């Protein structure tokens, strides 16, 4: 799994990422906790679960094979099934998204073809 199938896009604000293929890391400050995120674009012909692993591997600078299995956190088959409609004629509404935690990161997958990987920040008790 390589970044060949995944392109990064720079975000101009948290609600409307562009689709350029430049590297994207953005830091925002909400109160006193900074958050860093990167947005990746996945294509309709690829498995969203594999694209998530590729994106997380890119952010964490690791091999996707070395990551914890995605199924420890979320059902990858259900996730793939939900978002595979992007490649069919019946598309999901573009505002559909799924957000979950995985290996200390917050992952958001959108029906618009984005995977947003965000640092969850420090643990709060």
Structure, described:
The protein has 125 residues and is α+β, with helices and mostly antiparallel strands. 17% of the residues lie in helices and 28% in strands. The protein is built from 2 helices and 6 strands, in the order E-E-E-H-H-E-E-E. It starts with 6 loop residues before the first strand and ends in a 6-residue tail after the last strand. Residues 1-5 and 7-34 have low confidence and may be disordered. Residues 12-32 have a biased composition (Low complexity). Residues 1-11 have a biased composition (Basic and acidic residues).
Secondary structure category: alpha+beta
Q: How many distinct helices?
A: 2
Largest sheet: 6 strands, antiparallel
- Strand content is 25-35%
Let me know the number of strands: 6
Which of globular, elongated, flat, extended, rod-shaped describes the shape?
Answer: globular
Question: Helicity, in percent?
Answer: 10-25%
Order of helices and strands: EEEHHEEE
Kindly report how far apart the N and C termini lie.
36 Å
Radius of gyration: 14 Å
Q: Which segments are poorly predicted (pLDDT under 50) over 5 or more consecutive residues?
A: 1-5, 7-34
Mean pLDDT: 74
Region (Disordered): 1-35
Biased composition (Basic and acidic residues): 1-11
InterPro entries: HalOD1
Biased composition (Low complexity): 12-32
In brief:
With 125 residues, the protein is α+β, with helices and mostly antiparallel strands.
